[in-house]
Design brief:
Length: 196
Amino acid sequence: MIDEGSIGTRLTDRQIPILYLIKLEFADGDVYFTNWSQSIEWDGQVWQSMNITPTVSTMEESSNLESQALNISLSPVSAAMLSLALEDPSNYRGLPASIYMCVLDDNFKPLGDPMLRWYGYMDTMTIATDVGDDGVTGAVNLKCETGMHALRRLKTYRMNNAQQQVRVPGDKGFEYVERLITEPTTWLSVQFQRQG
């Protein structure tokens, strides 16, 4: 049972430990991991720590029909994540990604069940390296988009006979559309029709 009062009180604190559970649905199989230092069992799955620190960008909400991107940065790079990043993009692009969030108390115990905080689709995965005083560091950056992003990528079709023949060969529905637009004809008025 979720104690909404304790969650609300906890959210007013300055320092809030938050548990993220991240589910990425790759074509080869789902990957479950967490920002926690140890693996966690929840919802019938084991969410692996993978010894990485996922960084999730700000989750923004929009009241209009605008795509909101979310970036997940995984560092240090594990061999498993590196192999996923180097795979063919069709293995992840356009497939679902979910982020669950749970607020923790002062003893780092969950306050209720994790709640779905963000849902979208994986878009691009890049590998970033940085040479600094500590040596070479790297991260796998995964950009995810909401479903609105897919709407911008839809192929549009023109309403003309050529496009219709590609889609439905032999169809006559658009045969005269272009001529009706380019060569408008005057239609008989109601008054003229009543005279006859």
